[in-house]
Amino acid sequence: MLPSEDSHTIHNASIAAFMALFFFDIFVWHQIVFAAPPRTAQFYFLDIGQGDSELVIFPGGVSVLTDAGPKTTVVGAIEKVIPTSRRYIDLAVVSHPQLDHFEGFIALLDQYEFGAFITNGRDDDPGVKEWPALLQKIKEKHIPIITLAGGDRIRNGESNIDILSPDSTFIQSAELNDTGFVELIRASGVRALLTADTGFVVEHYLAGKYDIFADILKVGHHGSKYSTSDEFLAAVHPKIAVIEVGARNTYGHPAPQTVSKLLTQTSGKLLRTDKNGTVSIIPNGAVLRVFAERPGM
Structural domain of residue 228, as residue ranges? Predict the structure, then answer.
């Protein structure tokens, strides 16, 4: 189970109600949560190194895994947050075909059953042999592959995942990061925005077309200096922002200016998987409970 060192709570209605840090036995909490299907959504930002992987468990227990990071690290990360006896994931979402987002699914397919895979349909030029290998493995297991795009919606009871991007223009972009899924998740009274590796161009489009306010923001492109514009951040105004990034990575992620912006231009809390490990966010009525695997920022 996650060896959580700290937790803190944030009121959805007002960041002013940010409650004090307190210690919590995550093992006991985890056993209680999974004794029965959860009644509230659970958001996990998995520590898988330099890459992305987000697991959302909806009320009733339906699980959606967006991206799986590079290599096999995701297997151990998932086993820390859900029982090892549970070997089924309802829906896998591949935001876009880059190794640090999809490669882990190859390992997961050896250990988990999947209900379906969602992709953006861009499989013509990923430039890596692992992408066709993943598609072949999915087909061999007779798992449906569904192509979605901006404007589509995944429904689960009173919860929704709205695909905001890519539209018909972005999906054809020569910049593969522009093709990444942007997902707005609504569950248990919480709005969470997952932004893959999208940058300024997509952010400008989103801010102009949608209401993208979100309680939780998965920061785009591992905190790159080419993401998280002032305009976008003002529109999202998150209460909690999470950067998924590998320690001592060679890309300089997250960029100092992006970290500074997130700390100074929002009233929220910033967490990073390189410093905090896996981050878990559990709504409890009007409160967001945040659990960090390791103490950090």
Answer: 6-292
